[in-house]
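User: Can you fold this complex?
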Amino acid sequence: MAATAPEWLLASETDLAPCALTGRRRRRGFLEKTIQATARFLQSAIRSEETASEHGLLQRLDARVKLVSLVALLLAAALVRHVSVLLALLLATLALAVSSRLPLRLFLTRAWLYVPLFTGIVVAPAALSFVTPGEVVVSLGHWFGHPVGLTHQGLESAALVVSRVTVSISLVVLVAMTTSWPRLLAALRTLLCPKLLVLVIGMTYRFLFTLLGAVEEMYVAREARPRSSERSVRQGRAFVFASVGALFGKTQALSEDVHQAMVARGYDGDARMLERSRLTLVDVAWIGACILVVMLLLGVDRAAL
Amino acid sequence: MQRSEPLLTCEGVSFSYLGRFPALRELSFEVETGESVAVLGANGCGKSTLLKILGGLVFADEGSCRAFGHELSERALSDDGFSLAFRARTGFVFQNSDAQVFSPTVREEVAFGPLQLGLERDEVERRVSDALAMLEISELAERAPYQLSAGQKKRVALASVLVSSPELLLVDEPTAGLDPRSRQWLLELFGELRGAGKTIVLATHELDQLEWITNRCLVLSEEHRLIASGPPSEILADFDLLLAANLIHEHAHRDGPLVHAYSHSAAHHRESAGRVDPGCSDREDC
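Assistant: Here's the predicted assembly.
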């Protein structure tokens, strides 16, 4: 069977545009941004794996111990009613980040920047005198004939919410950055989470990388082909819908293969998994320290009332 | 289970996807214990489907299949006892390692099979360490699958199957997508397993080193029928058969005003890479 190429394929193209910078520079569209976000997610996941494999304080702890202490500290942060106590806890999270060899810039960006900023914007109206009446510390003039300002009580309430949220996020980020995903899943399994749920979460996370890789490949393949310089939202939308369809097909085929691979190795609907971790002295010491910190936080908070 | 009859028997097996797209037509053959059989055929001829039928993952529309002295049907495999016994004796290595490596870490992946089969945890841990060491991937034990190369994933997939020490190994396109060193290593491993008396059925369209790793070949036609069965030396010598099954192609090149045409296999290309024209040095395309 000899291949017969059409004439136009064997002849060289004569009326191609010159290979020079003669077009318009185009701005990045939503597709490019989405793909870049995909790449950022992959990088961030890889970065988290790197920080989790550092030899710092929190990395040495058993994931179960970290999860239990996280819940205890979150509860304590929710019960504390003084901003100063929460600020002390916040400083403690920073100390933990340092002792766990986390990149401080990354930790502060994830925990202390965006979430507190947006929480602050959301709770800012609570500081106004007509929402929380009290002693006005910053006057904002008269609105509709009434004096309006930021009250001491309102500012305190807003600061309490923002600091509580920041502490909670910092604690969660600490655990997330110092625990690898598989260990976190294993810890969830032992802490009475349904095994099937943990299995599904684990497989979703695992195949997310495969499917994100497929999305990137589809996009790169599209970019590699010559297209009109006139791009429209409609073209972009058509590509997205076509990609969703193709990805759906790939996902379905992959899920069938995965199921068969599981069945072939004896899966009968009840997944049995390997549990290995044993508690060490460091874990026991950490549990003791956490109990002490929680009692201290609540005690100081009560005494300050 | 009685073991006097062949390990695998297929009689008149036919299978089609969605009832419309035939994948296999009236296949009949046997595989004895300890045999190493290559299922040869072009892309889309039904090799993977046949392996899945032998692995009890899909079931024939017509005809019957027996394994380990028992009929291999959906009904039989719904029996806990038979299912466990069959899965413990059979290992399936998929072509797509990504689908087979589904656990969060390599260690958990390799432990999955023996845990499902009910082995004691200490025994599972011992076997996992041994399997990782055998496949030279101990340092990957705590890695996530997305951090592995294609060759490493293939090794993990193999470890996850061999850890259960199956009597019957079904392997789909084992060397697909592997670099030459990994490919050679894998072929040597199959040679060793064959020497150890494991029964191996592998689907491939690679003819290179077939004689070393198998003692019989089944050839499927592009019409999804079994067109030949015999020792590799006999099959590889039958150029008309290989040409008909699309396992080799008729090669033509110009020599001045003359055009030479002759049959060619991938193996022949590699052996005579220095003698053929340089444009044909690519194994896959030439």
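Chain B has a mean pLDDT of 84. The CA atoms of residues 97 and 154 of chain B lie 6 Å apart.
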